[in-house]
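Action item from last meeting closed. Structure (54 res):
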C-alpha cells in the first residue's frame, strides 16, 4: 500500500515539474522578446545557399 502512495505522489510531482518547465519555455520564448535570436536561427538554412551562388 505504501508503494502505491509513493507512485501517486511521484506522479503528481512530475506533473507539476513538467508544467513548470513548459511554462518556463513559453515565457522564455514569447515574453523575453527574443525574436532577433529566432530570426537569425531561422535564416541559418539559407546561409549556405548565399555562399554557393557567389
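Sequence:
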Amino acid at each position: 500500500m505504501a508503494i502505491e502512495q509513493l507512485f501517486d505522489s511521484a506522479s503528481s510531482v512530475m506533473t507539476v515539474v513538467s508544467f513548470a518547465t513548459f511554462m518556463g519555455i513559453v515565457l522564455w520564448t514569447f515574453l523575453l522578446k527574443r525574436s532577433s535570436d529566432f530570426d537569425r536561427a531561422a535564416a541559418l538554412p539559407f546561409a549556405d545557399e548565399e555562399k554557393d551562388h557567389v
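Note appended to the action item: The chain is about 85% helix and 0% strand.
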